[in-house]
Amino acid sequence: MATIHKGETKFYVGEDIRDPEAEITFVQSGSNRLVIDHTYVAKELRSQGIAQQLLKHVVQYARENDKYIIPLCPFAKNQMQKNEAYHDVLQKQFI
């Protein structure tokens, strides 16, 4: 399992926040929403479930901070729509 780090507007894998090996990025929208806008995993880390781990971290962060998620990133949108465990933080228009 990869070590996930938290930046100001991302969760990422790797030692360099500016050049991560994998990341999921988000922006604050209003006082109670996070917009997931990008997910990236380097070729050598793909097929290891790292993108899922990154998404789980954003979901947990949203829960801990009473926020909803608007998933604009296609990966996050797909995963959040099909996984009912994420629906509590998914902005209702995306369910």
What does this structure look like?
There is one protein chain. The protein has 95 residues and is of the alpha+beta class. The protein has one domain: 3-Layer(aba) Sandwich (Aminopeptidase), CATH 3.40.630. The protein has helices spanning 50-64, 74-82, and strands at residues 5-6, 10-13, 22-29, 33-41, 68-71. The chain has a five-stranded mixed sheet. The protein starts with a strand and ends in a 13-residue tail after the last helix. The relative contact order is 0.18. The model has no long low-confidence stretch (mean pLDDT 95). Residues 1-95, 3-91 form the N-acetyltransferase domain. This is N-acetyltransferase. Keywords: Transferase.
- The CATH H-level superfamily is Gcn5-related N-acetyltransferase (GNAT)
At the first level of CATH, the class is Alpha Beta
Head-to-tail CA distance between termini? 29 Å
Task: Characterize the overall form.
Answer: globular
- Spatial sequence of strands, sheet with the most strands: 1-2-3-4-5
Q: How many structural domains can be distinguished in the coordinates?
A: 1
Specify the CATH architecture.
3-Layer(aba) Sandwich
Q: State the helix count.
A: 2
- Please report which band the strand proportion falls in: under 5%, 5-15%, 15-25%, 25-35%, 35-45% or over 45%: 25-35%
Overall mean pLDDT = 95
Q: State Rg.
A: 13 Å
Assembly status: single chain
Count of beta strands:
5
Helix/strand-derived category reads: alpha+beta
Please estimate the helix content.
25-40%
Poorly predicted residue ranges: none
Query: Could you give the order of the helices and strands?
Result: EEEEHEH
CATH topology: Aminopeptidase
* Biggest sheet statistics: 5 strands, mixed
